[in-house]
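This section describes the prediction task in plain terms. A model, or a person checking by hand, is given the sequence of a single protein chain and must write out its three-dimensional structure as a string of tokens. No templates, partner chains or ligands are provided. The sample shown here is typical of the held-out split.
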Amino acid sequence: MGISALAIAVATVASLTAAPHPVVDWHACATGPDDAIGRELDDHGGQCAEITVPVDYTRLDGRRISIAISRIRATDPARRRGVMLLNPGGPGGSGLEMAMLGAFSAPLGAAYDLIGFDPRFVGRSAGLTCGWTTSTFQRSAGPDRRSYTENVALQAKLAAGCVSRNRDLLPYASTRNTARDMDVIRQALGEQRISYYGDSYGTYLGAVYLQMFGDRADRVVLDSAVDPDKYGPDLFANQSAPMALALNHFAQWAAGKQGIGATAQAVLDTVNRLVRSAPAHVGKYTLDDHVLPLVIYAGLVSDDDASYTELATEIRQLRDSSPTPTAKLAGELDGLFNGSADSPDQAGTSILCADRAVPRDPAVYYRDIQAHRGDEPLFGPIGRNITPCAFWPTAPVEPPTKVHNGSPVLIVSAEHDPITPYAGQLVMHKDLTGSRMVTQLGAYHHGVFLGDDCVDAAVVAYLTGGPLPTADRTCA
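The expected answer:
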């Protein structure tokens, strides 16, 4: 987008938020007997509504879509601070159910009208689908050029599915437009300022909102922040080293007690042999050298005993060609091989591709994978792999947002987060010069709020009116 178009976009948002908005038409959330999330919102006293926004903020008289929002009112009107918008990450994650946050944090439910929303082109907000027969574009590039070529063909096919159904909408799926939608929601709700909690990708969305509309933000918490300087389709390349550390941590946990190795090194040897000998078989599924590493990757997102026990069980079942995979593994594989209409990665891919351009030449990615095979043998071919964005028909309409401002923000982090690496979280901290950071030491998981008493206390204290910590803090 040129300078004149950018100026128009700024002016159109200003005119939208200055114009009077109709009263929000709140109604029940359930759309039918099969709408489990809608029924749960209704059972918690939730309400739902739709806010109309332009597809293209440079053309107010053009096509419009409805953004679905949900609300659960503050349970203590005397202590109500205002509204808090919530985003669960992704990109592509539906946020309507986030309005039920008060069920897990009563102080926040007392202090805020909690507002969930489906970002543009997600879920009920004109959700994009691509006709995929897989739940995600993520795969391992495999061990050689042949396996990489197979993956290039898959990524081109996945991109074509998105393009054939949504070509006219793809340029407008950006995070910057979602931030503009958030400000229209703020105005429609009659609020001068809004608070915000975002997780994972939601931290980038929150940072972009602060950069564009910082004077309209109240309390902001970013949980497991992405690196705002590198956010985009190639962000996954930074995961390889922390994923390897997480695998080592799992191996130390599993040693001698899970039947996959008497020592940590023996556990790692079991995993490496399993991957090298792909394909593996479990139940009706055959896991090739694209899918098998991804199962290990997915099992390292959380470091609690239940998650690690599940991963150890999956490794044993794959090693032994078990006829009965766990329900979790069967569900993951069914998604990878058969897909689902509401797969968040379909809309999420469109958001990634609208936010930052990537190289188009498949050889660029293969050279990068090969250059790092020695130090990233298992996870490098996943994180550095080509994505559908290499085959996208449109370039981003606007340049990526440069995040740099002094907004007061609380960032909460796990020291060894394998999904949004800590080094990138420190970049977010540096770019938000007014921020403070609370780090959970020794943690190898993604997402820290509502999982640690020390972190939870810091988040709740700040969101309910307390000051930012005077300095960065740690939680043991």
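For orientation: The domain at 3-129+172-233+400-475 is CATH 3.40.50.1820 (Rossmann fold).
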